[in-house]
């Protein structure tokens, strides 16, 4: 026993130290694990957001959406030879009769005064236009004005107690918002389809000159053109205009003209008979990496001035062919389309500051925006880099 006595105190001290470590430093004996943060949904908040039915929204907007029927007289034969009486007597008299081509589309009543927005391609070239309301009334419409650059047109009908749609700004749209399309697809009658906003600001699709489309997967088919795209509150957010399809029917990619753009075009057509757009009078092309390197630029964000219209706003402000536009209105240039569209939205008379790169130096210039002239009012030969017309 005396021989083991010398071992008791070391063993007892070790036990006491182990107990102290377990009490005061428990993490030393805990297995090491990797911490992963997982955010779980609070089931108490519910899974549904928004209404279970959009009937109220549809009821509010549907009466303002109309069917449009057009008739176009097309001669069977346009050859002058067949108008010769000596030739006609040798042929069937009915062989040169005119034929009637009918088409259909949709429109939206934007004001109680009877102004209706639709697509230009719905009524282009039509000899007569008939508008049919949801309540069964019909009226012959006259064209107030049209704008092929945005594929919009404004019609006017004279009927009492016209329902008009409420317009919501398209600037507040978000991808994922509920969208409902109302129109007359294939002539079956007024139809409502539902989807979401798939994208905003779609451009460079080659459909119109000025593109800023809302993309939606709400079904849009032939006959829906010119109809309403509304939000979950029943307010107009766009005018349905086109689809991307390999079959001719809806494949979940439809495009609508934003309500803000449609409202501006409608107001211009009613007040001026034309759409007033800003213009600076330049022809520009985007900078390639090779051009950027040759000019000593750090990136390709800019536009090279390929031509300037003589006596136009840019020419008066001192811009020269070969200059490189770096900024317009204090904003860096993204691409030529966005720059053209931003200038077009400016009212004539606006003083537009621009930053240009010329011969290795950055210059600040100011251009007074003018109204965009028609094709016949401006020379089609801008002054080029050689100073020639």
Automatic annotation (TrEMBL):
Keyword Transmembrane helix annotated: yes
PROSITE patterns: PDZ
InterPro entries tied to this protein: Chloro_Bact_Ser_Proteases, PDZ, PDZ_sf, Peptidase_S1_PA, Peptidase_S1C
Annotated organism of origin: Amphritea pacifica
Pfam families recorded: PDZ_2, Trypsin_2
The protein's name: Trypsin-like peptidase domain-containing protein
Spans traversing the lipid bilayer: 6-25
Cleavable signal peptide: none
Record's keyword terms, sorted: Hydrolase, Membrane, Protease, Transmembrane, Transmembrane helix
Domain of life: Bacteria
Record bears the keyword Transmembrane: yes
PDZ domain boundaries: 269-333
């Amino acid at each position: 026993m005396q021989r083991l006595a010398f071992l008791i105190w070391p063993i007892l001290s070790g036990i006491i130290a182990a107990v102290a470590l377990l009490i005061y430093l428990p993490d030393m004996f805990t297995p090491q694990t990797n911490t992963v943060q997982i955010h779980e949904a609070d089931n108490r908040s519910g899974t549904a957001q928004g209404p279970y039915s959009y009937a109220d929204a549809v009821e509010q907007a549907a009466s303002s959406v109309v069917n449009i029927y057009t008739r176009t007289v097309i001669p069977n034969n346009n050859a002058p030879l067949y108008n010769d009486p000596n030739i006609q007597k040798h042929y069937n008299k009915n062989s040169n009769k005119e034929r009637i081509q009918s088409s259909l589309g949709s429109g939206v009543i934007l004001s109680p005064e009877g102004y209706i927005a639709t697509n230009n391609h719905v009524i282009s070239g039509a000899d007569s236009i008939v508008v049919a309301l949801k309540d069964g009334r019909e009226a012959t419409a006259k064209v107030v004005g049209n704008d092929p650059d945005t594929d919009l047109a404004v019609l006017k009908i004279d009927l009492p107690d016209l329902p008009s749609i409420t317009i919501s700004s398209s600037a507040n749209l978000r991808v994922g918002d509920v969208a409902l399309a109302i129109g007359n697809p294939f002539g079956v009658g007024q139809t409502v389809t539902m989807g979401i906003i798939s994208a905003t600001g779609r451009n460079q699709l080659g459909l119109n000159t000025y593109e800023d489309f809302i993309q939606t997967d709400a079904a849009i088919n032939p006959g829906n053109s010119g109809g309403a795209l509304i939000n979950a509150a029943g307010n107009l957010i766009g005018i349905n205009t086109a689809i991307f399809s390999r079959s001719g029917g809806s494949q979940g990619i439809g495009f609508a003209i934003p309500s803000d753009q449609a409202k501006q075009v409608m107001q211009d057509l009613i007040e001026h008979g034309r759409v007033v757009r800003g213009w600076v009078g330049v022809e520009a092309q985007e900078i390639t990496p090779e051009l950027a390197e040759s000019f000593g630029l750090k990136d390709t964000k800019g536009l090279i001035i390929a031509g300037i219209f003589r006596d136009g706003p840019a020419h008066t402000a001192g811009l020269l062919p070969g200059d490189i536009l770096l900024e317009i209105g204090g904003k860096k240039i993204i691409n030529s389309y966005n720059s053209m569209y931003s200038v077009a939205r400016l009212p004539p008379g606006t003083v537009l500051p621009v930053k240009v790169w010329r011969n290795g130096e950055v210059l600040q210039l100011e251009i007074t925006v003018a109204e965009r002239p028609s094709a016949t009012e401006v020379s089609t030969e801008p002054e080029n880099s050689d100073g020639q017309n």
